[in-house]
C-alpha cells in the first residue's frame, strides 16, 4: 500500500460515525468559550477510515508477525490471545465505582500482588505505575519520602550504571537528584571500586539492573547492595531483565529494598506500539508505608482499598493499568511456578543458543567473554571496521527480510552494537532463521557495502533523510506544520 | 506436554540445542549466580490453569464478581461511547504486539501516531503535540515542568477546581523543586480572582474544571500570565473541543490533558493517555520530554517517511541530560484517538459536544435546586450538594445506579455523557427525589 | 511473506493449546474402534500457529482492504464492524435451548422476517437457508411441494435464464427438474418469445433474476410472471441483485410467488472467504404452508417456534445462520427505510458513474446500450481482438495494483467479460482509482501484450500453472496427496 | 448528515457525479422500471438507530433477553471449547470480508483452505476433502448422492440412530429420486442387523450415532456394502478422531459430517460447516460438487500456487451439467477448523478424545440406571430414559440447567464435552436425583 496521510483522503461532508441527537434543548454558548471555526479534521466514511488504518497496520510488524528477538532489553514475548479476550470483561468498569461492585478485579489486583511479591521476595507490591519508567519514578519518590521521614532529606545523590535503562538516571534527575553513573569494568560489570568511591552520606540510593543489558549476571550484586546499605542508602532493583531468572533468584535474596518489574516485558502484556504498559513496584517491609496509595487489602470478608500511612500518594488515575494487570495475572496463572521456571530456563537456553549462532558469523562479537542470561549486546565492530557498514545500516537491511533489531541505548559503550533477546517464545527454527539472515547481511556487507548502505529495498518506504527533523525551520511534527512549511 | 507458550521446552529440541552449544544442562548458564542468591525451593504460586479453557472459566468467575450499573461516574474517567472501529484497529495484532521498530518496518505505527498528533493539532490549533505520555496527570505535571524550565522559575498557580488525585500526583512530581500555590474557586465554580508576580512560571487552569464548569476567563488569565513573563497552561479534555474554543484561541501557551474520552474504554482506569501541545516555538519544543514524530522525505520524491523530531531532547539520547524521561507510555491509545477523531470529523465533534452540553443542562435542570454552580456553563459534569452524600449514593446503589463520585461529605460529582439517554437521566432524577 | 505449508513448520512434541485432564477414569477402547496410529497433524507452539495464519491473512484481500467493486453480482459492500461485535453475545446460545431462554434472538428473527417481508412485499420469509443457493434449493423444494399438494406433481420443467446465477439451473436440476434456459435477446434481456415457447403444462416454475448480472432491469418482468402463471407455474425471484432497487420496486409488485435474498450481498453480512452466508426465502400467502420449519411466531406474550402444516421440513441445523441474521438485522436497523433507499440510489449512481468511466477506456465496452441498475457486465472484446490479451489476464495484472475483478460465470455469453458492481460503499475517489487502474492496464496491453500476459509481478506468488489440477495423476487436493505424488 | 456507510450520498459528491455522467437525477437510472412496479410509498420499517451507540444499546437490550445456563445440550451442535486463536484468525478483516478473489490476490484464503482440507485428510486418512459445504446435513445428503451417482443406483440404507432434523433434510434432498430405507437400531444402541442387495447404492452409518454410541461393526458393514457393489458412507464428527478409528480404517468409501466441533461457537446454530472426504479415486472425485483446492506449481521453482482441482465437475463451470451445485457455503469455518487442528496437533486431539470419553462415562455412571445403552461405548452423548422427559427438563431449568435435548416423551439426550467439569456433572446428577 502507498497510503496517503489521512487528511489527504478527506472529502467535505463525509462521516465515519453518527452521534445521537441531544434530545434536549440546545445550549447556546457565549463567544468567550465557543469555538470560532470548526477544526480541520479529516472527513471520511467509516469503511475508508477502517481501510486506511488496516492498511497502516499491515505496514507494521509485531511479535505476532515476525521473529521479534531483535528488540533486546524489551523482552518481546508472546502475549497469549486468550488474555486479550478478557479486555471486554473490564471495559466498562469505572475506577471509582464502589469497591463492593469491583470485587473480581480487586481480587486480581490482590492476587497478582501476592504472586509478584513471591516472585521477587518483596513484602508488598504496588501495581499502580503506568510503565517501567513510571515505576522507577515511583521508586525514587518512595526513596525520597523514606529518607525525609528519617530526617535524611539531605541525601541528594543517586548512583546508577551505564548499562541500566536510561530512565534510572533520567527519572532520578527529574526528581532532583544528582546522578553518578558507574561505568563497566574490564569484565563488563559495573565497577565495584567506582561504587565504593561513590557511596557516602549523600547517597540516597543505588538504581541497578541485573543482569544488565549486556546479559551478564553480576555475581557480586549482594556486595553492591551491602555497600550502599553501609552508608545508609537504599538499593533499588530495575528488574527489566528478570525473564531469565524467574524462580532462580529473587530481588530480596540479594538484599534489595525495593525494585520494579515491567509487566509488559517479563509478564507478557503486549507492547502496544509503546504502551499502555504497566510497572510493579515491590518494596521491603520498611518501605510499605510509603507505597503509592491506595493498595488493595483483604479485610477478611472482601477486598478494600487502603492508603498507606506515609504514601507518596496517587500517581495516576485509577488503581493501575488494569488491562495489563489482568493479562499479567492470567499469564502467571496459566504457567504456575514450574511454568515460570521453564520460561526462565528456556529463555536462557534460547539466548545462549542464539549467541552460539551469532558468534559464528564473521565480524560479529559479544564483548566480554562471559556467560549470558537473558540477552546479549553484540558488536559489529570488526565487520564495521572492515567494511565501513554501521550497525544501524545492517539493521535496516535486515528489515528487508522481515526482521529487525535494535542497536542499544545511547551512548554506544559497546561499539556498533546490536542487542538480541530471544525470550522463551521463539523456536529453534526461528533462531536459526534469524541468525541466518544476519549472516547473510554480514556477507552482503563484505561483498558490497554500498548495497547494504542503500537499504531498505523491500520496505514500505525507501531510505529516509532524517536531517529535516532536527531543523526547526523544516521539522513538521504535525500535518498542519507540514502544510505550512512545505506545501504552502 | 510442552507448554504452548514455550516451544523449545520440548525435551528433544532442548537436548539438541544444548548439544549444539556444547553444554550439558541449562544449569550451566546460571553458574554466575552465587549459591547464596539461589532460591532453593519452587516458587509458592497457585496451581496453574494450563488448559486455556480452565483459565477462561476461572477468569470469568472472577469477572462475575464485578457489578455494573447505570453509572454517572466521571471525575477523570469517562463513559463515552467507543466506536467499534476503534477497537478493531487497536486489537490488530500488528499494532497490539509491536513495540519499537524503526520507521522502515514499523511505518504504520509512525504514520498512525503522526496522524493522531496531527488531528489533535487541528483540534487544539497547535502545531506540536507529543506522542502520548501516561495520562492526563503526567501530562499536567510535565506541562508545568516545561513552563518552569522554559521560564527558569519555580512557582506555579494551580486551579483548586482540580481532581484531588491529580493534585496529589502534581505534588509528588513537582513539589521537590516547584512551589504549588492554589487559586481560589469563585462561587460560580470558576477560577477565582488572583494576582501573580514575576516569580511565577505559569498559571495552570482547567476547563471544564473539576466541577464540569467551563472557564470563561481564559483570555484574561493568559494576559495576566504573559504580563508577568509566565505561561498559561490549560488542561482540557479534547472531547469538548468540537464546541468549546481551544486553549490556543485565548492565548494558552501549553495545552494538556487526558485522551481517554477519545475512543478508550474506562477499563477500571486502564484507558488513559496524556497529551501535551504547544505552538511550533523552538525553545518551548525543546522542553518536551516525549517523542515527537514528524514527516521526513525519502529517496523517492513525494513519499512520506517518518522519524523523531528533535531527538536530542530526550533521555534516550542523553540519559539524565535529556528532558525528564521517555519510555513506553500509551502509544496505542494515541493511535486509537486518531481513529476516533477520523471517524468523528469536525461535524461529529461538534454534534457530540452539543449533545453533551444539552444533556448536561437537561440533567442539571432535572435535579433542580441541589445543583451547585447552576449559573455556570457546564460540560459533562456538575456537582450537587446534599445533606448526606454517602447516604444518597448508597440509596442509589440499591436502585442499580452509581450516582456519582463523592467529593466531600455533602458533595457529589455527577457525570452525563452522550451515552446517557434522557430516560437514564430521568431515572436518576426520580431516584434522587425518592431518596431525598 | 513466503509462508510454508503448515506441515512443513511442524516439530514433534510441540503444542498449540493444552487440553484439560479427564479427572475421571480413562476409558479403554476395543481395537475395532480405537485409532491405530496418531494422525499426522502439524505440531506447533501457539505463537507459531498464530503467526502462520496472520501472515496468510495478510496475503488476502477483502472489502476492508481494497476497492472491492470487481466481484460483480457479489455485492461486496461494507460490513459494519459494530455488527461483528454482536457475535460474542450469541456465541454460547444453543439452537435447541428452550424458547423462553432465547427470546432476544427469536425477536431478532421475527423482526428481520417482518422487515424483509416489507422490503420484498412477500407474506412470510424463512431465514433458515445457509446461503443464496441453499435458498434457491429451498424455493425449488417448496415449488415441488406446492405442485404435489395440488396434484400437479407431473410438472417437471424449470425455466431459467442465462444471466441468472448458475445455481438456479443447478439446484433445480439436482431436485430432478429438466432445465430450460432462456438466452438473451438483442436487447440483452431474456427472450420473452423463448419463454412463450417454453411454458406449458410441464412448467413447474420460472427462476429468474432481475436485474440480471448484466445490470439491465427487465421492464417486462410482470409479463414474464404472468406468462408462467397462465400455465399454472410459479414465478420465483432470485433477488441476488436487489441492492439497487431497495425501496424502489418489490418482488410482490411484479407478481412473484416466491423469491430469495442473499443476506451476505444485499444486507451486508461479510462474505467470509465464501461463507457462512445466509439466504432468506420469501413467499406469498399460498406458499406459507410449505415453508421450511420451524418459523418464529409471536403468540401475544412471547416468541414461539411453529412448523407450517405442509412444511418441506428442516433444511439445516438450527433456525438459520444466526450470526448473519443478527448482522443483517442490525444493518437494516441502522439505516431504516430512508437509509435503504439511499443505499439503492447511491449504488445505482455509483454503478452508472463507474460505467461512464469504464466506457471511456478504449477497448472496453458494455454490450447492449441500456441503462444499468446495480452492476454491469463489461467486455474487453475489442481490446482482446486488438492485443490478444484476455480478460482473465487483465484481471491478474490488475491484482498487481491491489484490486481485482471477476470475469463472469461460464459460459462467457458476453465475450472477454468482466463484471463490476460498486455498491453504495465506495467513494467517488475509489471508483476513479479503480477505473484508472483498468485504463492503465488496458494501455499496457496495447503497448506490451506479453508483459500483461506475464502478470502477476507484484503478487504473493508468481504465474501459476493450473494444468496439473485437472490431471488425476498429478492433482493434489491435500498435502498427503501432494507428498505421495510429488515428494516421494 | 451523510450516512457513515454511504460516502457518495453526500449531496456535493452526488451532484458532481451526476454532472459528470450527464444526467439530472438518480431517478433517470430507474427509467426502465415501469410505473406499475414502483413502490409509491416509503418502506414501512422501524425507525433506525443511526447513531452506532444507539444501535448497540438496542441490541444489548435484545441479547439481555436470552438466558444462558449450565447446558448439556448437544444433538448436533456442541459446546466444545473454542480457542482464542481461532476467533483471532477468523475475525481478521482480511479473511472475514474477502470473497472470491483469484489465487493471486487471495493466496491466503487458498492456502488456508488447502491446509484445512489437508489436516482433515490426515485425521480421516483420506486424500480428498472438500472446501466446506453448509453443514453436516448437506454433507450427508451430498455424500449419499455421490454414492448414488457413482453406483448408478437409487436406494440407500440409512441408520435410524440419526438426528430427526438431519433425516428431514435427507428426505427433502433425496427422496424425489432416491429411496431411503431405515436400518433398525439394536438394543445396545448400535446399527441393527441388515441385509442388502445389488440395488443399494450405499449404507449410511453414523458414529458416534444419535445416542452417542460408537459403532463397532464398521468393517462388517463395509464388507456388506462392497459385496453388493455399494459404498459405505460414514458420518462422523472429526473431533472424535484423535481416539476413534477414522472411517477409512474400516473400509468406508466416503466420510462426511459437521465440523462445528472444531473451533466454532454454537452461535444458535450458526457455527456449522460440512465436510465430505474420499480417497483419491478419480471416478469418485468426479462426483464432488464442492470446490477442491490443490497445489499447483508457479513460474518460480519450489513456490506453491493454488487452484481448483477438477473444476469441470462444478456448476460454476457447467451450470446444470455440473454435479449438484456450488456456491458460497462455509469457507471461513473451514479455515477456522484448520487453525483448531493446528493448535491441537495429534496429541491434543488424542487427549481431548480421552477426556471426553472419560467424562462421558463418568456422567453415565453418575446418572446410573436411567442411562440407556449403558453397555455400549459412548462418545460425548448418551440417552436417559425417564417417566416424564419434559417434566425433568423443566425441573432442571428451574435449577439453572439445560439438561439435554428431548428425543421423545421419555427420552433425553445428554451431552458432555471437555467443557463440562466433574463438578458440573455432579451438579446435574444431584439435580436429577432431586427431581426424580
From TrEMBL, chains B, D:
A biological process term (GO) from this entry: nucleoside metabolic process
| Residues forming coiled coils | none
Enzyme class name: oxidoreductase
- Any one Pfam family match given in the protein's UniProt record, by short name: GDC-P
What residues does the Glycine cleavage system P-protein N-terminal domain cover?
5-430
Which controlled-vocabulary keywords does the entry list? Oxidoreductase
The Swiss-Prot or TrEMBL record annotates one GO molecular function as:
glycine dehydrogenase (decarboxylating) activity
Enzyme Commission designation: 1.4.4.2
Q: Which InterPro entries match?
A: GcvPA, GDC-P_N, PyrdxlP-dep_Trfase, PyrdxlP-dep_Trfase_major, PyrdxlP-dep_Trfase_small
Identify the NCBIfam families for this entry. Answer: PRK00451.1
PANTHER family per UniProt:
GLYCINE CLEAVAGE SYSTEM P-PROTEIN, GLYCINE DEHYDROGENASE (DECARBOXYLATING)
Please give the name of this protein: Glycine dehydrogenase subunit 1
Natural source organism: Nonomuraea soli
